[in-house]
Amino acid sequence: MTRCLFLLSLFIPLSVQAEIYRWVDAEGRVHFSDQRIPSAERLDIQSGRQIQPPPAPGPNSPDEHYPGPYSQVALLTPTSDQTLSDPAQGVAVSLYLEPALVEGHQLRLMIDNRVMVLDRNQTQLRLKGLEAGRHRLQIQVWGPDDRIVAQSASRIFELKLPSAPGELP
Fold this sequence. Notes:
This protein is mostly beta strands. 6% of the residues lie in helices and 36% in strands. It is elongated and about 110 Å long.
């Protein structure tokens, strides 16, 4: 009798159904749950299929402007393609972030792919020690999970050595 029940159970299709919901919160984080949330989308999960998680929200390229949860993330100075001619004075950098930096986020200034972590409310600074030549500058906002949540478009500017008196540029 036990054998018959066991064999019979092999032929009865088992139906397992679970509803999974996905939503993105105000800070751009993706969540999954088996509980329905008003703004969530229901995912169609079929047994036996491998599902790739959706890509984390973020910029599509390292140079593009991506405001993320901010309305404005911008470098005000130096301007694009600006030529500066006094390296000793340094490069004045001014940035704008609206609204203010979210708790847990961190400002980072990218200078030629080098990282400079900024103080929480630092929006004005002077870069010294840059060599003559073209430089790439960008502001990024990093989240607590160590990923970019917002960034400005990158800026290219040039730093030239000043001409000596009596010398043509």
